[in-house]
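Incident review: delayed structure delivery

Summary: a single-chain prediction request sat in the queue longer than the usual turnaround. Root cause was a stuck worker, restarted by the on-call engineer. No data loss occurred. The affected request and its eventual output are reproduced below so the record is complete for anyone auditing the incident later.

Affected input:
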Amino acid sequence: MDPSKAKVPPMKDLTIDNITENTIRINSQSSDPRLTYVLERLVTHLHDFARETRLSTKEWMAALEFLTAVGQISSDVRQEFILLSDILGLSLLVDSIDHPKPARSTEGSVLGPFHSHEAEDMAHGDAMSHDAQGESCLVLCTIKDSHGKPVPDVKIDIWETDSSGHYDVQYADREGPDGRCVMKSDQDGNFWFKAIKPVSYPIPHDGPVGKLLEKLQRHPFRPAHMHFMFERPGYDHLITALYTRGDPYETSDAVFGVKESLLVEFHPADKMIAKEYDVEIGSAVLEHDFVLVSDIEASDLRDERSKKALADLGRKVKLVHGLPVPDVD
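Output delivered after worker restart:
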């Protein structure tokens, strides 16, 4: 940028008392009102945090070194920043704000750091996992809209760990994707596949996030679960997971993903299911009904909740494309 063309307001003799207003002032010249609003609130809260905690230079440098380490350990198959966001509860908060769910629809959960775009397309009934040590299970699901109508042709991304609690991308010598697949719902909104019963496992705790958990005297474990992601034009994007009821970490998930409506139980296959789906009698079966909401339903609910939340905070804003910006009228 040519400095001579920048309209920079005069600033000097900045102090604890005037640094915030001046930082906001110089950041408020963008033509993007959303960027202006986000930076104004970010600077306000960051500066207030420093004042309220009387943040020391030593602590500030430790925080910068911590974030540097988070970035350095991240890779294409390990996203430590997502992990950090998860253990701070931010991932769940952002998803809940951006993808609100009306009553009786499927609630969202955290994406986690191990989703991959390498998953292969599979047909209904195929085996997603080839882990011979895992306990086989059959998963039978339906997808409906909020009015109970089946939703066909939904892209479903599914992934889980192996029986040792590791995702395929955690193995350096892996030959290809396993424990994950992509399929589409049929004309009646159904999809089904074979997998292994999920197991509880620790999130990666050999890096900076793990060290932070240790300092906080928190464990790194997640309850047994299976991830699902649903995409179809006209419907709100849904990232969720199903958690095994009764898991020892059900109420202390390291990344805050468990919700009562997402807890499930397995039941043994009877003769009819065993014959229809070619599984052994008594083998584990998981049945679940997913409910998607339309883009319009989600947008209206998001706007409604945003207006109320910001009014409660005393913020004078207006919504543009569903996002708050300063209301200067």
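Verification: The helical segments are 19-26, 33-53, 57-73, 80-87, 90-98, 208-215, 271-277, 295-312.
Action items: add queue-age alerting; document worker restart procedure.
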